[in-house]
Structures are given as structure tokens and as C-alpha cells.
Amino acid sequence: MDVLKEIGNIGAGNAATALSQLLNKPIDMAVPKVQLLNFEEITDKVGGAEELVYAVFLRVEGDAPGNLFFILSPEAAKNLLSRIAGIDVGVSEELSEMELSALSEIGNILAGSYLSSLADFTSLTMYPTVPALAMDMAGAILGYGLLQFGQMGDDALLIDTTFLEGNNEIEGQFFLIPDPESFPKIFKSLGVPFDND
Amino acid sequence: MIEEQSIIKVGMADLNVGSQVSLIRTTGLGSCVGLTLFDPGKKLAGMAHVMLPSSDIAREGQLNIAKFADTAVPELLNRLLALGAIRSRIVAKMAGGSQMFAFAGGSDTMRIGPRNVESCKLALEMLRIPLIAEDTGGNYGRTIEIACSTGVLFIRSVQKGSKEL
């Protein structure tokens, strides 16, 4: 677990740096949490299955496949857009095509930097697929990332990092859900014995 | 007189049954399918939140039968019959099975929503339970709720609003 936490830490550190550069202001991140959670608990992490979220989803392919989500509340998404792209989203509920596309690209940059640092650290090939963006109920979105785990049991391993700007404003959360068969490979690449506990 | 309604929550890969004044609800269905059975005579209803099409692919030691279409549907039927439902009156409705993310050339996993729907239909056919309404497919999430007294299925979604089946 500590190894996975460290991996999450390094990935998120790079993503936080990338986000800082985009925003041109310091971004902190909370220490990543690595937890084995049941499906309900995972959606509770973003406020429940019905909570409305924006999510950039990338399938990770290569040696250690998995699912990577960058999740933002609607407020955080608007904040991010207005600060980075100078798009004044205003009070309108819906984001335009242009805004969605910008959001997807931001997610892509962050996820890419997260992933490439993981790949460097583990010497495993990990490459992202084209990102997909969705705005919907958290349960519906995250459920998709849990399918591989669904074949094994009712729990999934989640590496969860929250970004903070200033005091306690949550900018977004990274959820990395490695496929079950990826753990032994990740551990092996780091020279750590893998046990199933 | 207004009777107080109790809400029975069904989680992911879970199923439950209720009667009379209860509402059975499951939230945030994406590629999962919410399948409901209803006996109008006894006012009994059941709901399963099906995650995967077939238990053949299960690699777990202890099988969670609520998770797979081929095992969840018969189990839900048995639970309703145990409550006193009359088999010949039972009808089914379902919602969900969407494709949350569209990718070019999508693999099998990508098509899991439509496969869940097909598999639920097959399970119903094998049990000879008529499917009287469905709201499946698309690329959005749904929250559904069945009223055990009427069998009406309420569907809410962020993108497409609400509807009743």
C-alpha cells in the first residue's frame, strides 16, 4: 500500500505542477490516499452516486492497464475554465462545445503528466487513450471504471488525490483504478514482493 | 390519508424487494441496468442493479449473484415469489445500459451497457416474464425508482430530464 501511495504521490505531484503552470499560481495537493473500497464507498468520495460531476476519462493501456478519471464539481470546472482559458462561464448551467473541449484538454494535460511520471517511475509502458469527457451522475461515470473489478469482487483499489488552491478549495480529484492484473506488474517493476493482502 | 412511503435503496450489484407503500430506488445507473419485476395483484416489486452480463466471466470465489444478469434475474424472481407474488402476473421493466464514453473502435468492455441490456432480456425470456417497458441505451446516467403500489417506474437523468414508464 505504501508503494502505491508513493506512486500516486509522484504522479499527482507532476500533475499539480502542470496545473500550477496552467493557472500560473500555486496548487497544492493532498497526500494521495490508497484504499481498497467497495463500489458504494468510491462514489461516496465524490458526494454520492447522484452527484453531478464533470469527468475526463482515459483508459490507460500498456504494461499496467487501468482507468484514470479526473473529476471536477461543476463549480470547479467553471473556475478552472475562467482562470485558464479566460472563459467567463457566468451563471449558465450548460457549458458550450468550446468550453467542454477546453475542459477535456485540461484534463488531458493533467492526466498525461500524471501518467508519464508513473511510467518513468515504474519503467512500465503506460499510455493514455484519447480522453472522453462526460458530465453526469458520479455513479454512472465511475461505475464504468469499476467493471474490471466487478469480475473479481465488490471492492476496487483507488488511488485518490485532491488538489487544493489557497485554503481548501477543491479543484479536482484524480482517481486511478488500476486493473486487478496490473498490481503484480507494478509491484514487480519496483522490486517489491507482491502479496495478495 | 397519505401513507408514509419508505425508500428501499439498492446499491451497485445489489437487489431487493418491497411491497405496498415502499419505493425501491437505485442511483447513478450508467452501463449498469436497473431491472424491475412487479406483481400488480399483490403490489410487490423488486429491483436489481445489474453490473455485468454474465457470471461466466466471474473470477471471484463467492459469487455475488446480484451482479450478473444471468443470475440476478432468477434470484429477483425467487425473492418476489417468496413474498407471495403470483408468477403469471409478474411483468418486467428496465432502464440503464448506456454507453457512458464513446470511443472509436470500442472494445467489448466499451459495449458493456448494450450487452447488459441484451443479457437481461435473454434472462427474462428464459423465465417467460414479459418486458413491458424499457428506457435503455444512450450515453447518460439514470436514477430510477419503482413504486411498489403501482409498478410505475420513475426515471431521472441529468441530460434528458424525467420520465415515467
TrEMBL record, chain B:
Function: Probably deamidates glutamine residues to glutamate on methyl-accepting chemotaxis receptors (MCPs), playing an important role in chemotaxis.
Source organism of the structure: Paenibacillus donghaensis
Top-level enzyme category: hydrolase
Domain of life: Bacteria
GO biological process: chemotaxis
Keyword Hydrolase: yes
InterPro entries documented for this protein: CheD-like_sf, Chemorcpt_Glu_NH3ase_CheD, Cytotoxic_necrot_fac-like_cat
Name this protein carries in UniProt: Probable chemoreceptor glutamine deamidase CheD
EC numbers: 3.5.1.44
GO molecular function: protein-glutamine glutaminase activity
Keyword field contains Hydrolase: yes
